[in-house]
Design brief:
heterodimer, A: alpha/beta, six-stranded mixed β-sheet, four-stranded antiparallel β-sheet, 11 helices, 14 strands, globular, B: alpha/beta, 10 helices, 35% helix
Chain lengths: 321, 315
């Protein structure tokens, strides 16, 4: 369905730094991305994700280091870089008071897609977005799933080999979201390189690789599966305890427990060893008036991994063990 | 759903709201027990905000009824306001006032007693890791900190029921955890929380939840019970060639559907006991597969399954 003639492009980032006065927003970041790869960026607000992405889009000049987009240097050739990329954000991409077709024309004009190429690309975008018979509808009247596919159509009208997505499916109906990611994965399969920036772990799962940023630095890099299985220090247990409040308090001081948190009616407990903790914790809690009815080891979520890594990075920067 | 009790913190009966031909909330029914965290979960346009505005007594329903903290939201709206706190999506923080000044403003508004407010503000700010930002202008806070300040302001009087409209949208995972830690500690104090979210993974933190779509209730139960009701099971395949895995399993017996998720394929299958059978199908097709294992379904899996189920019944 993706009739894209885009040729994939690789991205190379070497020791990239961006300072604003005394503040270092991006601090010595290096990585490479292959054509057709979906690469996700995660991290708290202010971690440097947007600054990094703005540099990669040629919108902001690096202070030092370099970044090559499809072989083009973002500092020397920002204009050419911008022609190689598409950018889509769920919230800000479209003009709500323009019709579907007017939005496509606007972006066509912006990217210099004209004449027969515009006809072909806009027809493709309308079909992809399922909007063939709603060309004249006001964009504000579209449901979020359609809006977001139209935004994608606009962002790739000029067949960019590199696509940046900023929290593209936040608030979108899960069925539309799955359809959207199916499209993105098809594009990637044709060689389009995709960057995703998100706080949303359900979106992060769709990435081939994830980069975790914290205070300007890259603190983790790997496939979601890899991070889930190998990046957590310790193992994660799910426990049913009564009463929960007392259990939480007791667990926080228990031997072999790194962290404990309430999760719905249950507790999520990070321990040094799942076997040892499963054997010892019920008695430990029992002695403190807490009844433990069920313990099982569960897979950590990406969020579990990231929250722990960010905590560790914070401790390290304060010089604590 | 727990049996109807006098003690229900929230009771919603056939609640309906229409806007210019669109039924935003359509015959909603649910109950929330005291000290429960109840989630209204669904995408944009599901009717979450409209429901919360009706529960807060700021929007009159077109049909049906709701009572919150023992007050009917239409007839006893004034009394209701003294018993609840409502934090809308865009909570009215004064950006040119400091953190402390914002708190003082809301404390005055809610006529909170002076001694109680100092103690409470101090505790809430400490719990959200914001003690050192007391003198910072609200306009200079990050998104996550603004939400935590909003919560502090909303909680400066002690409500029986707290209504939160998408408080964690756009908030990073670390701040989100802080936020939930505060909610759990409130529940320990006996406060009931009704919270809306479009982040389906967040739904698992609620004690019970309502899955909403287009103004209608899809399902309402605890996260664990909802997962038990999911049709079939989810098996995850990890492969260097995920697309081929999906194609090879497309027509296999018992396979209800599959989804490409990065380097993985999530296969919805009637029974996870079919794993050896699926592996044989992959070997026969010559598709490499590193692992194939059953996983707990996600809330999104569940949501999609519930929508499909509803479509089947409608058809």
């Amino acid at each position: 369905m993706i009739a894209s003639s885009s040729v994939g492009a690789s991205v190379v980032v070497e020791r990239l730094v961006k300072r604003f006065g005394a503040f270092t927003a991006v601090d010595d970041v290096s990585f490479g991305v292959d054509p057709g790869e979906i690469m996700g960026f995660l991290g708290p607000n202010g971690a440097g994700k947007s600054t990094l992405i703005r540099m990669l889009c040629g919108l902001l000049r690096p202070s030092s280091g370099r970044a090559l987009i499809a072989g083009l240097d973002v500092a020397r050739d920002p204009e050419a870089v911008r022609q190689h990329i598409g950018y889509m954000s769920q919230r800000f991409s479209l003009y709500a008071d323009l019709t579907v077709l007017e939005n496509l024309r606007f972006f066509g004009g912006l990217y210099g897609v004209e004449g027969r190429e515009f006809e072909a690309r806009s027809a493709w975008a309308l079909e992809m977005a399922g909007l063939l018979d709603r060309k004249s509808a006001l964009t504000s009247e579209l449901a979020s799933g359609w809006k977001q596919r139209l935004a994608l159509g606009c962002a790739v009208l000029h067949r960019p080999p590199i696509l940046f997505l900023d929290e593209p499916t936040s608030g979108v109906d899960p069925i539309a979201r799955r359809a959207f990611w199916e499209l993105i994965q098809q594009m990637a399969a044709t060689g389009v390189t995709v960057f995703v920036s998100t706080h949303y772990m359900d979106e992060a799962e769709y990435c081939h690789r994830l980069a975790l940023m914290d205070r300007g630095r890259l603190v983790g890099l790997g496939a979601p599966e890899e991070l889930r299985h190998h990046a957590l220090r310790g193992a994660l247990l799910e426990m049913d305890c009564e009463p929960v409040g007392a259990a939480l308090e007791a667990l926080q001081a228990a031997p072999g427990v790194f962290d404990a948190a309430v999760f719905g009616s249950r507790l999520h407990v990070v321990v040094a060893s799942a076997d040892a903790a499963s054997a010892e914790l019920p008695a430990y809690l029992g002695a403190r008036g807490v009844r433990c009815t069920r313990i099982r080891a569960i897979e950590p979520s990406l969020e579990d991994v990231f929250v722990q890594q960010l905590g560790a990075a914070a401790r390290q920067s304060r010089g604590a063990p | 759903m727990p049996p109807a009790e006098v003690g229900d913190a929230v009771r919603v009966e056939a609640l309906t709201k229409r806007f210019a031909g669109v039924t935003a909330v359509d015959g909603l029914r649910f109950r929330v027990g005291p000290a429960e965290i109840f989630g209204l979960v669904g995408p944009d346009g599901a009717g979450k905000s409209t429901t919360l505005r009706m529960l807060a007594g700021v929007l009159p329903p077109d049909a049906g009824s709701a009572s919150v903290a023992g007050c009917d939201v239409v007839r006893e709206a004034e009394r209701l306001k003294t018993r609840i706190s409502y934090m809308p999506q865009h909570f009215g923080l004064y950006e040119d006032l400091t953190v402390e000044e914002n708190i003082r403003f809301y404390a005055d508004l809610f006529e909170t007693e002076r001694n109680a407010r100092e103690e409470r503000a101090g505790r809430l700010l400490a719990a959200s890791g914001m003690s050192e930002f007391r003198r910072r202008l609200a306009g200079q806070l990050s998104g996550g900190m603004k939400q935590k300040l909003g919560l502090t302001c909303a909680l400066i009087h002690t409500p029986r029921v707290l209504l939160l409209d998408e408080p964690t949208t756009g908030v990073d995972p670390v701040s989100r955890r802080d936020f939930w830690r505060i909610l759990y500690s409130l529940v320990d104090e006996g406060v009931t929380v009704v919270i809306s979210t479009s982040y389906l993974d967040e739904a698992e933190r609620c004690h019970r939840l309502a899955l909403l779509r287009s103004g209608r209730l899809l399902l309402c139960d605890t996260p664990a019970n909802l997962k038990r009701r999911m049709r079939g099971e989810v098996v995850v395949a990890i492969s260097p060639r995920p697309r081929e895995v999906r194609d090879a399993l497309a027509g296999a017996p018992g396979v209800l559907g599959s989804l490409l998720v990065g380097v993985a394929v999530h296969v919805n299958v009637d029974d996870a006991a079919r794993i050896p059978e699926l592996l044989r199908a992959l070997v026969a097709a010559g598709v490499p597969c590193e692992s194939l294992q059953r996983v707990d379904p996600t809330m999104e899996d569940l949501f999609v399954s519930a929508v499909r189920e509803a479509e089947r019944t409608d058809a």
